[in-house]
UniProtKB/TrEMBL annotation, chains A, B:
One of its GO terms (molecular function) is DNA-binding transcription factor activity. It comes from Caulobacter henricii. Residues 353-363 have a biased composition (Polar residues). InterPro entries: HTH_LacI, LacI/GalR-like_sensor, Lambda_DNA-bd_dom_sf, Peripla_BP_I. Keywords: DNA-binding, Transcription, Transcription regulation. Residues 27-81 form the HTH lacI-type domain. Residues 1-25, 333-363 are annotated as: Disordered. It comes from the Bacteria. Pfam families: LacI, Peripla_BP_3. Residues 1-10 have a biased composition (Pro residues). PROSITE patterns: HTH_LACI_1 (PS00356), HTH_LACI_2 (PS50932). The keyword DNA-binding applies. This is LacI family transcriptional regulator. Residues 333-346 have a biased composition (Basic and acidic residues). The lineage of its organism: Bacteria, Pseudomonadati, Pseudomonadota, Alphaproteobacteria, Caulobacterales.
DNA sequence: CTGAAAGCGCTTACAG
DNA sequence: CTGAAAGCGCTTACAG
């Protein structure tokens, strides 16, 4: 609401025009036009890949562009287009590994495109959350935004973006929107894979630690898990399901509660690796050996899965790959579709078996 | 070298001018000028906090600005200023937690300033590294850049930035440049703290696992450690120092090597938490109990320090705080100096004692 | 203290 | 297929 402080204009001391050595000014569209003997408008057409340029003319202009290493000024282009060449990543996610992997994936998909990535962490619970998003998108005239969970699951954000006409991609565990706005992670499949693995090991006393209700993935992972259990005739009691917060600490607390019960579960599926690591900690405190006394399975396959002892059996999610696909979808729908035809991209999770899971103890 | 593909112009289908509901166009400087009965130049003076505006005029204009929620278009302003309001973070750092904390800190320091953060991970070993940095900075006309380690330690980058006249802040463990370009982390102090803690526990057979030589922090942490040891009459032999790569896996490998020796070290100081976690893993494989048989001390105090067993005694570094200071220094030198006077910001590391360190075993 | 003119480097209409 | 004019929303010189 209150107007933000504005940046001061750049100070002009210490910086003689053009710097010390790299003083040769960069070419502009006017330079290229003059050099190629055409109007700037025709150069503009070449830049924007307009079909209405004679091949010969195009080639001449492209040669001059290449010779001078000309690249159009994104700021000027943006001003004229009324839209910047900036892509925003708006997120509220507690996991650094997820955030970094997602950023890397988006950058993978943007490489060589001339776009840049502007990061915008936020707090979905803040009373100014929506206003903040709106200000960010409108003021920067973002080309588009990518929304990972749980921001992706906020219908108010999607509605806002539609209203102000900003392109967006939602990354979520399930199809929440029109296909052109979605990259789907299919967390449900991952939950099912975890269930089958645990069942294959002979476990019957099984517990599930859910993520927070505010994340759709919590429900999907649980849903897939329960469904696959049901296929083999096993039903989880309400008491077999307890809720964590996707954090290590909540994993410890949930583990403490579960492992104090009689009878004790012989296998615990945690909604993510952080919580699974917490369960490992809890088992150690209880004097339990993993996997001899207890099987623990996580979800995500982030680094922590390999840093704990024993290394976690977990469900791998291709976060970076998903990011790449999101960026490509946002930037260039046509090219993406062609690519998908010949190289169908996978966003499905896969089971990774390590040492935290083993046969059910013989009673 | 080869010109990048250019973004396509925004497609005009599906998006009727002005969106669905938020269709009222945002006010421009012309609107404000007309409404306030002044020229746009005078509005511009108010925006840029020029002192050459009569108080009465200023107040009238500010009232109109507030009433209309006007905010100048950063793209247009940037085009006229020949400089954007974008701040770049250029980094090549393997630790997601560090990257995310640094980003959060930069954002803390930028909040309400009207600047935005553009992230630019890179590969310092790439043959096109310097050219990439140059292209990024020049094409986006960045207002300034922040360089965390190890990019901050690359003198070629600093030289380049000076040449093209781009403001920059280097974050490093030691003063590498003029004070106005530096935020210093004083890793040396942290190394000394680790040494004193280990000595206080009675250890004499001590080993050090260094980070990669390409990180200045590796040398500083080691230097502080050795100096504090020397103060108490202890000198590390060359064989007591081995080199890792700041990764979990390298920590395991170095731990394996160290723990196979006779006599075995009773305390290991690892250059960061990842490697310390690796040593823990290695100790477990060797059947050693921590801290009864072996003391392990890390550096950084990232989340992994608390997720492993036993939780790591480590040296806490205020990464996010350092990021905040870097952004503030870049954006507004004057305000920063005043703030530092009354609230001297600390960037020094501090010892955090947890359960991976204990008295030297009685022989 | 204030303003009219020109310009930043592009693109959008509009002609031809 | 190509171009001259006007404009995107600001700021920089330059006057007064």
């Amino acid at each position: 609401m209150n107007s933000p402080k504005l940046p001061s204009p750049p100070s002009s001391d210490h910086e003689p025009e053009g710097g010390l050595e790299g003083g040769r000014k960069r070419a502009t569209i006017n330079d290229i036009a003059r050099l190629a003997g055409v109007s700037k408008k025709t150069v503009s057409r070449v830049i924007n890949q307009s079909p209405f340029v004679r091949d010969e003319t195009r080639e001449r202009i492209e040669a001059v562009i290449a010779e001078w290493g000309y690249a159009p000024d994104p700021q000027a282009r943006g001003l004229a287009f009324r839209r910047s060449f900036l892509i925003g990543m708006i997120y509220d996610n507690p996991n650094p590994q997820y955030v970094v992997n997602m950023q890397l994936g988006l950058l993978d998909g943007m490489r060589g495109s001339g776009f840049e990535l502007v990061v915008h962490p936020c707090n979905r619970a803040s009373p100014t959350f929506l206003a903040d998003v709106r200000t960010f998108v409108e003021r920067q005239k973002l080309y588009g935004v990518v929304l990972p969970p749980s921001v992706s699951e906020d219908e108010r954000v999607a509605k806002l973006l539609n209203e102000i006409g900003c392109a967006y991609i939602r990354i979520a565990s399930v199809e929440l929107d029109k296909p052109e706005h979605m990259i789907v992670g299919h967390d449900r499949m991952g939950g099912a894979q975890a269930a089958r693995h645990i069942l294959d090991l002979g476990h019957r006393r099984i517990a599930f630690i859910s993520g927070p209700a505010t994340f759709r993935s919590s429900h999907e992972r649980r849903g897939g898990f329960e469904a696959a259990l049901a296929e083999r005739g096993l039903t989880l009691q309400p008491s077999d399901i307890i809720q964590g917060a996707y954090t290590f600490e909540s994993g410890v607390a949930c583990g403490d509660e579960l492992l104090a019960r009689t009878p004790r579960p012989t296998a615990i599926f945690a909604g993510n690796d952080e919580m699974a690591a917490g369960v490992l900690q809890s088992a150690r405190k209880a004097g339990l050996s993993v996997p001899a006394d207890l099987t623990v399975v996580g979800f995500d396959d982030f680094q922590i899965a390999q840093a704990v002892w024993p290394p976690l059996t977990t469900i791998h999610t291709p976060t970076r790959e998903i990011g790449r696909m999101a960026a490509e979808k946002l930037i260039d729908a046509e090219r993406r579709e062609r690519r998908e035809e010949r190289d169908p991209a996978r966003t499905e999770p896969t089971l990774v078996v390590r040492q935290s899971s083993g046969p059910a103890p013989v009673v």
